Amino acid sequence: MGRCQNLRLLPGTHTIIRADGRSFSKYTSSIFEKPFDLKFHELMVETTKALLSELGGIYAYTESDEISVLFPPDWALFDRSLEKIVSISASIASATFTGIARTAVNFDSRVCSAANKSQVVDYFLWRQADATRCALNGWSYWMLRKNGETGENAAVILEKKSIAFKNELLFQNGINFNELPAWQRRGTGLYWEKYEKPGYNPIARQEVVAVRRRLKVDEELPIKDEYKEFIYGFLNVGD
Ligand SMILES: Nc1nc2c(ncn2[C@@H]2O[C@H](COP(=O)(O)OP(=O)(O)OP(=O)(O)O)[C@@H](O)[C@H]2O)c(=O)[nH]1
Ligand SMILES: [Mg+2]
User: Fold this and answer.
1) Mapping DSSP to helix (H, G, I), strand (E, B) and coil, where does residue 101 land?
2) How far is the CA of 104 from the centre of ligand 1 (A)?
3) Residue among 201, 6, 167 at smallest CA distance from 85
């Protein structure tokens, strides 16, 4: 009888899980608008909510077909078993998206352990930079395609071109990149916010205010240094 692996997350480290849609280029190509589709984005946001709330994360971020979820150093779910975390997170993402979209899709999942807070911050800055880069490339590519270029030509035209070139290309075609919806350029953040819920205590016969928490979907994330500070705000004091 072979032995099953039972790897565990490093103790005392922040953990980030990243789930990514499997072959979504193929899946999305005929049914969703390019480069961005609001309905697809909403499906991703719902999937992000499920991961964040079912696994007990403190912050989540989604862009394109990927979702990152941050967990605190003392996160103890599944005894920090790596295989459980990876498989269950991929399963929650796949089941949630599939259930709402009514099309069977798969997500993969991986774990990134951050050695310290600045690695957590760098991770989220890195994913946001990726979102911005992909948005500019995606809009430029599909603008060229709309103007009659073949896929191959569009790729050649954009190869090694500067950010300024792509911005100008869009501008000449009536699109100001900086005015596109922020969720496309910066990605979307999800986190818990406290709110007060008025109620009535029938035993004490009193109006009471309960503090509850709900998920905030932030479609207007800050960028760069401000985003850095924003992410630091989710991390515990120490190290
Ligand atoms: N039409 C459309 N496609 C989208 C949208 N958002 C993401 N996608 C697609 O999702 C893909 C995500 O890229 P990848 O994860 O690198 O590609 P993939 O095909 O999923 O490949 P693997 O993740 O390696 O399985 C993009 O290339 C797009 O094709 C959207 O709003 N509309
Ligand atoms: Mg993918």
Assistant:
1) helix
2) 16
3) 6
Q: Ligand 1: residues within 6 Å at CB?
A: 20-25, 28, 32-34, 36-37, 40-41, 64-65
The two tokens of residue 143 are 């603008």
Cα 129 to averaged position of ligand 2 atoms, centre (Å): 17
pLDDT at position 237 over 70 = no
Nearest residue (by CA) to ligand 1, atom 32, is 36
Q: Which of 139, 160, 163, 142 is nearest to 151 (CA)?
A: 142
Q: Give the C-alpha separation, 49 to 96, whole Å.
A: 10
Would you say the pTM of this structure is higher than 0.90? yes
What's the pLDDT tens digit per position in 177-193?
Answer: 999 999 999 999 999 99
d(CA 44, CA 39): 9
Closest by Cα among 52, 65, 102, 71 to 9: 71
150's CB contacts (< 8 A; 6+ apart) are none
Whether 228 is covered by a domain: the verdict is: no
CA atoms within 13 A on the CB side of 70: 27
Residue 46 lies in a domain: yes
- What single-letter amino acid sits at 58? I
For 34, the domain range is 14-129
DSSP lists the bridge partners of residue 210 as 197
- Here the tokens at position 125 are 């800055």
Residue 197 falls within a domain, yes or no?
A: no
**Residue 157: exposed, middle, or buried by beta-carbon count in 10 A (0-12, 13-18, 19+)?**
middle
> Does the residue 154 lie in any domain?
no
